Fold this sequence. Notes:
With 241 residues, the chain is of the alpha+beta class.
Amino acid sequence: MNNRVTPAAQALALVKDRFPHALGAILGGSAAQGRATPTSDLDVAVLLPDGDTSRREVVRHGNRLAELFLHTLADVPEHFERDRVLRRGTVLFIYDQGLLLADPHGHLARTREQARAVLAAGPPPLTPAEWERGRYVLTCFMDDLTDTSPTERYEQLSLADFTLREAAHLLIAHHGGWTGIGKWLPRRLLSADPVRGKALLDGHRTVAEHADSTLLAVAAEQVLDVLGGPLREGYTQRWSA
């Protein structure tokens, strides 16, 4: 018989213990998708009554760390808008894809619908200046990566990381998708563009495993071709007054 406590049960116990006045709670991240390991932290969004304080906290409950996204009802629109501007949708995805823990008065269900409406509308498109800067920065990283000797492993690996990240963010933006950081970057990348995304990730792995930057440079240039090509001479960035 398996007596192991599930992540959802642990998260619910945490909410009941620390926030007995909560209006609702939802478990997100890997735990909600069944991908959590025994050491994974718990991502928990908690709705609080107005008059409380919206904040982000990291706590330990039992044997697990938990990252808490605490929002009052009045503050929810502001935090959703911040998520939209950042283009990552961290909290939005918790509400959209998370596992409902408690919703005694229906507040969380209504908040979830708000989150889904924001996600369906998509992140804001990049401005022409942001597209140009992105192309220029990716071109610089790609050129430096190509020019770096395989014997300079620290530099090569650092450049591979920056090349992957910049190419991924631009490619995801090209498809109008939500980007991510950490482990969510490859997940969002493959969701936005399975073919070009996989080419970038395979190229990055080849740099790490074989000190060969060829595939990553080719994949990055293919992304640039979709966006108008590499950008070198002729790029101008105006400083703010």
